[in-house]
């Protein structure tokens, strides 16, 4: 698979963060407490989780690296698979979920939306201004383009989580979903069954939707790889 291009990743980030900011700006206190696809998390919790990622992005763009990359936009997600170091539903994931729930509840609705929107805009500007070819984050080194791709994937998947009970939210933009599909194809080592649309692939590939018996039959042994990350 070809390396992810920086311009594509940058454009996808601006679309993904822009969609999240558009939806967040229309949320009132009641909507922020609506359910999401993330167990135990309301809309405000998912938004705060994304805020943490955006804050990390600002640190990362100011953290150039000189060592060789040890992750790319696809392999970055391997630890978050069922057999990885940080599996979905594991102790570390549960501890993070608890932290997010407590921290998000300390914000007033307006404060949380304001901080997300301001930080998301700053991330997009910082990404444009970042001149580093390689950056360091979470103990790893990535090409800046690949790091951008990880931010897009996180935002695109959580957009689907956050909007599940927000009927007025626009459908996800296809550009960020294209980068999620790139990751899923890479982790799967092939293509999904015929008939899966992009959104279904994302939801099944990340464990948001279970595989049906027909899916398992079509996937064969590859079904054991699901969720590809979560």
Structural commentary:
The protein is mainly α and 230 residues long. It has a single domain, classed as dinb family like domain (Four Helix Bundle (Hemerythrin (Met), subunit A)), CATH 1.20.120.450. Helix content is 53%, strand content 3%. Strands 1-2 form a two-stranded antiparallel sheet. Strand 1 and strand 2 (140-143) form a beta hairpin. Helix 2 packs parallel to helix 4 (109-129). It starts with 5 loop residues before the first helix and ends in an 11-residue tail after the last helix.
Task: Chart the SSEs and their pairings.
Layout: H1 6-24, H2 43-61, H3 91-104, H4 109-129, E1 134-137, E2 140-143, H5 144-162, H6 174-188, H7 198-205, H8 213-219
Antiparallel strand pairs: 1-2
Helix pairs in contact: 1-4, 1-5, 2-3, 2-4, 2-5, 5-6, 6-7
